Amino acid sequence: MKSGRHAKILEIISEYPVETQDEIISRLKEAGYRATQATISRDIKDLRLVKTLGSDGRYRYISAANRKADLRSNFAQLFYNSVISIDCAQNIVVIKTLSGMANAVCAAMDSTDNASVVGTIAGDDTIFVACRSNESALSLNDSLKQYITNKSTGKQHVKDLTH
Length: 163
What we know:
The protein is of the alpha+beta class. The protein contains six helices and six strands; from the N terminus they run H-H-H-E-E-H-E-E-H-E-E-H.
């Protein structure tokens, strides 16, 4: 019963933009499964489901295995629409975003697995990116600026950051 329910939950979240546990319960009920909120909460933990910001600006459940692919695919658009400026000081790249967008941009950026990045930290509208060297910070700074330089023309330039 549990494995069938787990499979159905994974099917539901892959087909529908599910935002709440109640939505999962309702869709399971439609499919003939009965479950309580506590059971769904445990299932979410067992399946390692996470909520992520979709391209429509709404949160939804996805499996952790799909999280990185989902974040990578949305990175360029999220970065283009949210970042105001980028600058660097020695081995630190500082990214200014619209208010409330730093965490989403930072999570998306972390999903790129850039080898020159040691770590990131985000506030409400600012991200600090610690790079391995001053040179790698300058390179990252230049690469990231490519995402926002064409705002005036409306053309988006996508560049692979996983070098």
